[in-house]
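Input record (one chain):
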Amino acid sequence: MRRLSTEPDSAIRILNQRVAALDVRGHTLDHVAFMFFNPQEPFTVSDVFVGDALFGAGCGGLFEGTYDRMFAALNRLRQLPPASRLWCAHEYTLKNLRVAVQLGEDNAKQAARLAALEQLVSEAGLREHEWMTIPLTIAEETETNPFFRWDSPRLQKAVDTQDSLETFTRVRQFRDKF
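The corresponding structure, as predicted from the sequence alone:
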């Protein structure tokens, strides 16, 4: 099996689309994401199929990986262009947002995202998992996903940490209780 980097030169073509694998080990030991490059801008990632590495306002649990490995995987995703669309394997956004606000970061964008989603579900008379928030974007997740906000001073204060990896670890441990 050929190892692929994030550079378009090492991408393969699938249905005339340039695609590269991105190492996102952490949820499991062999987890990869697939990045699709924009045909008009060959050095720009347009869509990323992340599997269980990342969810709306959340990330995958650590089944086989470690905190530092998952942190590194999410950091790779966080470095992608803000407009990159993320396609995750499951819809957990509403639950993840409800848990995220309990962290006490006092994040107005996170609270607004939760309120808008709860209103949408309520007005439509839907039950959880009868709607989709996917695709997500790097920009939205950077503003509202606590697993992308390890360097936020407000989140670090809320979870009583000063280090990015420690913050990520505390947030993951908090989420594991739900």
